[in-house]
# Entry
Amino acid sequence: MIGRRTLLAAGAATLAAPSIVAAQGSRVLKFIPQSDVTVLDPIWTTAYVTRNHGYMVFDTLFGSNGKFEASPQMAEGLTVENDGKLVRITLRPGLKFHDGTPVLARDCVASIQRWGKRDTYGQTLLAFTEELSAPDDKTIQFRLMAPFPLLPQALGKPASNFAAMMPERLARTDAFTQVTEMVGSGPFRFNAKERVPGSQVVYERFADYKPREGGVPDWTAGPKIVNFDRVEWRVIPDAATAAGALQNNEVDWWENPTQDLVPLLKKNANINVFVQDPTGQVACMRLNHLNPPFDNPAIRRALLKAISQTDFQQAVVGDNPDMFHVPAGAFCPGTPMASEAGLEVFKGPRDYAAAKKAILEAGYKGEKVVLMAPTDFPILKALADVGADMLTKCGFNVDYQASDWGSVVTRRAKKESIDKGGWSLFHTFWAGGDQLNPVGHAFMRAQGPATGMFGWPTSPALETLRDQWIAASDLGSQKKIAADLQLQVLNDVPYIPLGQNFFNTAHRKSITGVLDGFVTFWNVRRA
Amino acid sequence: MLTYAAKRVAATIPVMAIVAFLVFSLLYIAPGDPAAIIAGDQATPADVDRIRESLGLDRPFVVRFAEWVWRVLNGDLGQSIFTNLSVTHMIGQRIQPTVSLMVLTLILTICVAVPMGVAAAAKQGTWIDRLVMMVSVSGFSVPVFVVGYLMAYVFALQLDLFPVQGYTPIANGIGPWLSNLVLPVVTLSAAFVALIARVTRATMLEVLSQDYVRTARAKGVSQRPVLFVHALKNAAVPVITVIGLGVASLIGGAVVTESVFAIPGVGRLIVDAILRRDYPVIQGCVLMFSFLYVLVNLGVDLLYTVFDPRIRY
# Structure
């Protein structure tokens, strides 16, 4: 006869079964992404989580290493002729898409054309391109109007939108419409059947993937060797729950632990916490150049004197100086184009009384300053709180308008005046990788209200310097122009850099081989 | 009663129509533009317009509403703007965890709260009564997410008895299914147990003071039959009413619980959809929850006749 205690013991054993199952499956990697992969098409959105997903499913012609140097990935090699105006890229042999079809040059041509309709870098490349063609199955040919030395970097850019290669039949999809299938030639296949939006995304190793031979895995460069049969992304929006899942060995890796939980995770002997992306992210204050008072360049310049980048960064990452870098200029600190040119303005103690006086002298008449603050995006709210305090100390008539991020995104497109729902400023972040050079640097563009992006700065000088940078043939010239660009940014103030910060990633020590950069799943293995 | 039930089911049609209109209208006037969210930071206004056009968001309110209603009448709740998946499919993927969570919570609540309320009423003024009231006040006072974190900390991280997060479908076995649901169900039940226990106690106290209870006791009926046969049956109607009404707050609580325990349920689906302005998903989920709520209240009304024969429809 089964007794009550026996029954209870049996019940407990049954309930404990998942822990036993979790201990199995060493060929399965369980990962908590920064958010859900809502959109799967990496050309359709710039969301970084979609970029991370995209790099699993799709491959690129070139990869990029930690020094931001491009090297062939799907490409066998590249030849440049006719004074840099004819570029031919040859594909590696044996490349296949997940549907079993071979990767052909015409697939890549269609993919580049689709990417070039959405990505800033791609648009610039195609603006230089007279003809893009596939003379044979293995050759992609660019006939350029002028030399474009950054062509490999453009095709291998790690940031969103990256140049994902897909079959021609998918790449023919309008760039403003999502592709309907996830067929790439990357090291993982997307398992559509097991996808639960908002909860789970599953990838399986692509058996026919041929990693390139030679080289060292580094960011997206080098051989992509996969050591897991299956990677499961578990979407856990609550940070405390994610920390619990990692501590409890229910997952192997958490992409972005929140700063407040990092000390807890660091205490755990089984968890490795470190900064994966040395470029981090750069905080920015975007000013609206169409509305008073920030339509006045003298006021914008006077405002720089009140900016304490340290205050902004401490609000985001706390007091640990290892987790942020100030002062930051127009280019991502620690990368080749970054310099100290003009950054004195951010150094030294802040004198709000002097800033207030300078702002009044510049012509401020007490106009309302509408600050859009997204309350559902904690780090942006932290920046907004510091910004509001700083502006108030400078004597601005601040109207702090709290809403959700979705509303900010919509409202920032409004060019109307303040009394008609317009805005004055908001805070945001860019990945450091988006501010490596002027080509991909969106906030540095100053094309004016007709074609420019929200904020709508106008500066022919900035645009001219950008063109000069693109045409520059060597690193030395590029660096010199980049320094001039930074000085021009601090003069025209299309936006205000607020410092660079880093974020941690955390994984159990049972896995090794996590590469620097963003989250990639090749080279990772069980210890 | 069948006629009454049929009439009530028919009455859900105008209710659902009003809900549909309100939801659609509110979303139409709410700030936020999915096209701008999709387009990203580097998009030009023209890019955003093209996306808006491709999603059909540039068309007039009446056209969009009429199209949506027509699709709903044909059993199609539309397609998610972001995932490109059908809303019916997305709800179908998520319904089992939410229904499991709510049904188990209701069962646990009734099994725990009703005896607690009866015991408190029977032992009014004793330490048992005070203990039940203390538990009730605590259940009300502590937010769901705090209970959830405490449960996860103690029973998952410290004692390693249950997983911290996730959901295992019932098809994978009762054990794993229950294992994932124990902590969320206990968490979600906390406030509901408090509510039902207090209501049960109050109605039982009223019933126990009635003449027929005194008569039953005078006839020598022992305490247990007095409480559970004579009194509880008569006290059940208000308790059932509160349980029915509580399903609405249970839906709200499920949203929080699903977030804390990373359960892929409809609650989380609707929150994610609201943050992204995924209109078809929001509309589909609200419509489904409204229908569920109407059905639950119909069930409650019909249950009255079981516990109180004087009620006739």
